[in-house]
Amino acid sequence: MNTYNSNLTSFTGSLNTFFSAVSTLNNVVTNQINGLTISNNCTIIADSMRFFYNMYCVNFINRSVKIGRRHRGKLLLKNGDYYDGFYNEDSEPHGDGVWYEKANGTFRGIFTNGQFTKGDVDYADGSKFKGTMLNGRKHGENCEFQFADGDKFTGEFDNEEYKNGTFESRNGLKYQGGFLNGMKEGEGKYFLKGVAEYEGGFHHDEFHGYGKLKNFKNNTEYEGRF
Question: CA-CA distance, 165 to 7, in Å (whole number)?
Fold first, then answer.
């Protein structure tokens, strides 16, 4: 009898420990811990009621989380910022995901080892970007950036700077060509509706070198050096 009672007590203790562990896991998954709220669909039920069915089910590392072997989950900070998407083995955003920062905007697309590298960005100031990034800065070809006031640039960025492409303003101005330090540079085409059209060289945002200019206001043309 004493052996039976001892075994029963041991079993009861183990069962209580198991239910306590399940309760703790539920809290981790659904409640706020250290400023984070984690939600996921990770499976916690296993054959023979083994609690540690998947040791990777929930694992905090540097304010991030590994959820199952799929490495997908949602990270919510106290200030309302969040990341929802895939993680790599180091719990960094990696793959498809959405990162929202109240102060900066929403980043939707591809993340690589914690860095946003390609997709769409809706900035907090109302401007928008579509394309590729490197080290958190606009970089690469075939990018689109729309300013909050409606102006737009389409083309290549080099470390956040325009390099080559087309700039269009809401007042009818259009420029296609090279840029340097944010200014028109090299060969390009300039058009301002109802005012003028120019094709030729630019330097520091000004006509420079050889070019052709049409003045729509007085219906004149000039070809030569500027």
Answer: 78
Q: Are residues 6 and 27 in the same domain?
A: yes
What is the torsional sign of CA 23, 24, 29, 30?
positive
Per the CB < 8 A criterion, the answer to whether 204 and 185 are in contact is: yes
Specify the pTM: 0.68
Tell me which of 7-16, 150-159, 185-194, 209-218 is least confident: 7-16
Measured between alpha carbons, how far is residue 143 from residues 81, 101, 114, 147, 154 in Å? Answer: 26, 22, 21, 13, 6
Same domain? 116 vs 134: no
Identify the band that residue 74 occupies on the pLDDT scale cut at 50, 70 and 90: confident
Q: Which domain, by its residues, includes 75?
A: 1-123
Does residue 96 carry a pLDDT above 70?
yes
Q: Which H or E run includes 19?
A: helix 2-30
3-state secondary structure of 48: helix
